[in-house]
Amino acid sequence: xxxxxxxxxxxxxxxxxxxxxxxxxxxxxxxxxxxxxxxxxxxxxxxxxxxxxxxxxxxxxxxxxxxxxxxxxxxxxxxxxxxxxxxxxxxxxxxxxxxxxxxxxxxxxxxxxxxxxxxxxxxxxxxxxxxxxxxxxxxxxxxxxxxxxxxxxxxxxxxxxxxxxxxxxxxxxxxxxxxxxxxxxxxxxxxxxxxxxxxxxxxxxxxxxxxxxxxxxxxxxxxxxxxxxxxxxxxxxxxxxxxxxxxxxxxxxxxxxxxxxxxx
Length: 264
Prior knowledge:
By secondary structure, this protein is of the alpha+beta class. The chain has one domain (7-260): Deoxyribonuclease I, Chain A, CATH 3.60.10. It is built from 7 helices and 14 strands. The strands form 3 sheets. It has a 6-stranded mixed sheet with strand order 3-4-2-1-14-13. A 6-stranded mixed sheet has the order 5-6-7-8-12-9. Strands 10-11 form a two-stranded antiparallel sheet. It is globular. The two termini are 18 Å apart.
């Protein structure tokens, strides 16, 4: 019987692609043999991405960089050439900040790299985040009627449930775990029928993807799970494995590695 390898997808917020490269990210990712690598917070302009340091042999590249230098930006490396590419969500604040890129790999499958705004820097940014959530919910409803399946990878900048961050009691008034944000995620996974793919495989506590640089958060595993692979309901039976990679540190986020029984 011929063995067919599952589709392996990695997502990571790099907190600067130059910084991650210096910390060995590209040496590591070359060894993973992933089909698709989704990245967020590149903090680079597209012209600079042509440097050999950021090339992966055997991969097609798709980027959407922010207009502002050194800020935001998303990207995808894919072993499979895209049939279609979408780099815009359709509203100015998201598109100018380079927060989304999606590729269609066959007639039924799209994979996206999403970088949700953070509200931690002040009330103004939280207002922008709420506006993004409202508009993105409408965008997702459009995807539901497209008859395609989606894997939406990225830094969603929100923890969903108490299990998804260490100090949930003291963070209930902080951006990323506000009642309004958690309610939005409830609607995403319940009313809108999207699926938190990681939790299909792993229901354990202390599973985090981001740690503050303050104190000894990394060493003590005082973290948040804010990086997701969110899938449409049709892909739920295909989820095969999930792992948060912590043996090396390329960023304040860890890579989330998942595999799916999907044949391209």
